[in-house]
Design a protein that fits this description.
ARM-like, ARM-type_fold, 175 residues
Amino acid sequence: MVVWTASIALGAAAQLGKDRFLPWAMQVLQVISARVYVYNDQILIRYTCQYAISSIGKIIRYVPLHKVASNLSDIIPQWLNLLPINLNVDNEENDIVIYNLCSIIRLYINECFGQEYEHVDKIHQIIEYYITIKPQQKQLLSQTLTFIKDIIRSNWLNMSELKWYQLSHTLNIQS
Protein backbone atom coordinates (compact mmCIF):
# COMPACT_ATOMS: atom_id res chain seq x y z
CA MET A 1 0.00 0.00 0.00
CA VAL A 2 2.89 2.35 0.77
CA VAL A 3 4.42 1.80 -2.68
CA TRP A 4 1.06 2.52 -4.32
CA THR A 5 0.58 5.73 -2.35
CA ALA A 6 4.17 6.82 -2.94
CA SER A 7 3.88 6.14 -6.68
CA ILE A 8 0.77 8.25 -6.97
CA ALA A 9 2.27 11.06 -4.86
CA LEU A 10 5.57 11.10 -6.78
CA GLY A 11 3.80 11.06 -10.14
CA ALA A 12 1.63 13.98 -9.04
CA ALA A 13 4.68 15.84 -7.67
CA ALA A 14 6.47 15.41 -11.01
CA GLN A 15 3.41 16.56 -12.93
CA LEU A 16 2.91 19.65 -10.81
CA GLY A 17 6.53 20.44 -10.01
CA LYS A 18 8.00 19.94 -13.49
CA ASP A 19 11.51 21.44 -13.40
CA ARG A 20 11.32 21.91 -9.61
CA PHE A 21 11.13 18.11 -9.36
CA LEU A 22 14.31 17.76 -11.42
CA PRO A 23 16.77 17.36 -8.49
CA TRP A 24 14.98 14.18 -7.38
CA ALA A 25 13.80 12.83 -10.73
CA MET A 26 16.61 10.36 -11.43
CA GLN A 27 16.59 8.94 -7.90
CA VAL A 28 12.83 8.57 -7.97
CA LEU A 29 12.95 6.86 -11.38
CA GLN A 30 15.57 4.42 -10.10
CA VAL A 31 13.58 3.55 -6.98
CA ILE A 32 10.25 3.19 -8.78
CA SER A 33 11.81 1.19 -11.62
CA ALA A 34 13.51 -1.16 -9.15
CA ARG A 35 10.16 -1.78 -7.46
CA VAL A 36 8.40 -2.44 -10.76
CA TYR A 37 10.95 -4.98 -11.95
CA VAL A 38 10.57 -7.15 -8.86
CA TYR A 39 6.78 -7.43 -8.83
CA ASN A 40 5.14 -10.83 -9.10
CA ASP A 41 1.69 -11.99 -10.13
CA GLN A 42 -0.13 -11.18 -6.94
CA ILE A 43 -3.07 -8.94 -7.81
CA LEU A 44 -2.32 -6.18 -5.30
CA ILE A 45 1.35 -6.04 -6.24
CA ARG A 46 0.55 -5.98 -9.97
CA TYR A 47 -1.98 -3.22 -9.34
CA THR A 48 0.60 -1.22 -7.37
CA CYS A 49 3.25 -1.69 -10.04
CA GLN A 50 0.91 -0.49 -12.76
CA TYR A 51 0.44 2.77 -10.87
CA ALA A 52 4.22 2.97 -10.53
CA ILE A 53 4.58 2.47 -14.30
CA SER A 54 2.10 5.29 -14.82
CA SER A 55 4.14 7.51 -12.48
CA ILE A 56 7.30 6.79 -14.46
CA GLY A 57 5.44 8.09 -17.53
CA LYS A 58 4.45 11.25 -15.66
CA ILE A 59 8.05 11.90 -14.67
CA ILE A 60 9.29 11.36 -18.23
CA ARG A 61 6.58 13.62 -19.64
CA TYR A 62 6.54 16.50 -17.19
CA VAL A 63 10.09 16.75 -15.82
CA PRO A 64 12.70 18.07 -18.28
CA LEU A 65 14.92 15.02 -17.86
CA HIS A 66 17.09 15.94 -20.84
CA LYS A 67 18.74 18.48 -18.52
CA VAL A 68 20.09 15.82 -16.14
CA ALA A 69 19.75 12.42 -17.77
CA SER A 70 22.20 11.40 -20.42
CA ASN A 71 20.54 7.99 -20.52
CA LEU A 72 17.06 8.92 -21.72
CA SER A 73 17.62 6.55 -24.62
CA ASP A 74 17.69 3.78 -21.98
CA ILE A 75 15.00 5.10 -19.62
CA ILE A 76 12.27 5.58 -22.22
CA PRO A 77 12.59 2.13 -23.87
CA GLN A 78 12.59 0.51 -20.41
CA TRP A 79 9.32 2.29 -19.68
CA LEU A 80 7.90 1.32 -23.07
CA ASN A 81 8.73 -2.32 -22.32
CA LEU A 82 6.53 -2.11 -19.21
CA LEU A 83 3.54 -1.05 -21.31
CA PRO A 84 0.73 -1.55 -21.87
CA ILE A 85 -0.80 -1.56 -18.44
CA ASN A 86 -4.37 -2.66 -18.01
CA LEU A 87 -6.03 -1.31 -14.92
CA ASN A 88 -9.56 -2.59 -15.40
CA VAL A 89 -10.55 -1.07 -12.10
CA ASP A 90 -9.26 2.40 -12.94
CA ASN A 91 -9.97 3.56 -16.46
CA GLU A 92 -8.78 7.06 -15.60
CA GLU A 93 -5.24 5.79 -14.99
CA ASN A 94 -5.26 4.04 -18.37
CA ASP A 95 -6.26 7.36 -19.94
CA ILE A 96 -3.37 9.09 -18.16
CA VAL A 97 -0.92 6.49 -19.47
CA ILE A 98 -2.28 6.98 -23.00
CA TYR A 99 -1.98 10.79 -22.78
CA ASN A 100 1.55 10.49 -21.41
CA LEU A 101 2.57 7.95 -24.05
CA CYS A 102 1.30 10.11 -26.91
CA SER A 103 3.01 13.20 -25.48
CA ILE A 104 6.30 11.42 -24.78
CA ILE A 105 6.42 10.11 -28.36
CA ARG A 106 6.19 13.70 -29.61
CA LEU A 107 8.62 15.11 -27.01
CA TYR A 108 11.29 12.44 -27.31
CA ILE A 109 11.02 11.08 -30.84
CA ASN A 110 14.58 9.77 -31.10
CA GLU A 111 14.56 8.14 -27.67
CA CYS A 112 11.18 6.53 -28.32
CA PHE A 113 12.02 5.23 -31.78
CA GLY A 114 15.61 4.18 -31.08
CA GLN A 115 18.70 4.88 -33.10
CA GLU A 116 17.83 2.14 -35.59
CA TYR A 117 14.04 2.51 -35.13
CA GLU A 118 14.14 -0.65 -33.02
CA HIS A 119 11.36 0.45 -30.65
CA VAL A 120 8.77 1.41 -33.26
CA ASP A 121 7.25 -2.09 -33.39
CA LYS A 122 6.74 -2.05 -29.62
CA ILE A 123 5.16 1.41 -29.75
CA HIS A 124 2.85 0.22 -32.52
CA GLN A 125 1.81 -2.81 -30.43
CA ILE A 126 1.08 -0.61 -27.43
CA ILE A 127 -1.02 1.82 -29.47
CA GLU A 128 -2.97 -0.99 -31.16
CA TYR A 129 -3.64 -2.58 -27.78
CA TYR A 130 -4.97 0.66 -26.34
CA ILE A 131 -7.11 1.31 -29.42
CA THR A 132 -8.71 -2.08 -28.76
CA ILE A 133 -9.36 -1.67 -25.03
CA LYS A 134 -9.93 2.11 -24.97
CA PRO A 135 -11.98 2.95 -28.09
CA GLN A 136 -12.84 6.35 -26.60
CA GLN A 137 -9.13 7.23 -26.98
CA LYS A 138 -9.00 6.07 -30.60
CA GLN A 139 -8.73 9.60 -32.04
CA LEU A 140 -5.68 10.54 -29.95
CA LEU A 141 -4.03 7.18 -30.54
CA SER A 142 -4.74 7.31 -34.28
CA GLN A 143 -3.29 10.83 -34.47
CA THR A 144 -0.16 9.58 -32.72
CA LEU A 145 0.07 6.66 -35.12
CA THR A 146 -0.24 9.07 -38.05
CA PHE A 147 2.52 11.20 -36.51
CA ILE A 148 4.75 8.12 -36.25
CA LYS A 149 4.03 7.16 -39.85
CA ASP A 150 4.85 10.69 -41.03
CA ILE A 151 8.19 10.63 -39.17
CA ILE A 152 9.06 7.20 -40.56
CA ARG A 153 8.03 8.23 -44.06
CA SER A 154 10.16 11.40 -43.90
CA ASN A 155 13.20 9.48 -42.61
CA TRP A 156 13.13 6.43 -44.84
CA LEU A 157 16.39 7.47 -46.51
CA ASN A 158 18.12 7.26 -43.11
CA MET A 159 17.24 3.62 -42.49
CA SER A 160 18.23 0.33 -44.02
CA GLU A 161 16.11 -1.05 -46.81
CA LEU A 162 15.14 -3.99 -44.60
CA LYS A 163 14.06 -1.70 -41.73
CA TRP A 164 12.01 0.47 -44.11
CA TYR A 165 10.35 -2.66 -45.50
CA GLN A 166 9.55 -3.97 -42.01
CA LEU A 167 8.20 -0.68 -40.70
CA SER A 168 6.23 0.17 -43.82
CA HIS A 169 4.48 -3.20 -43.54
CA THR A 170 4.01 -3.09 -39.78
CA LEU A 171 2.61 0.44 -39.87
CA ASN A 172 0.90 0.01 -43.24
CA ILE A 173 2.75 2.96 -44.75
CA GLN A 174 2.14 3.64 -48.42
CA SER A 175 5.23 5.00 -50.16
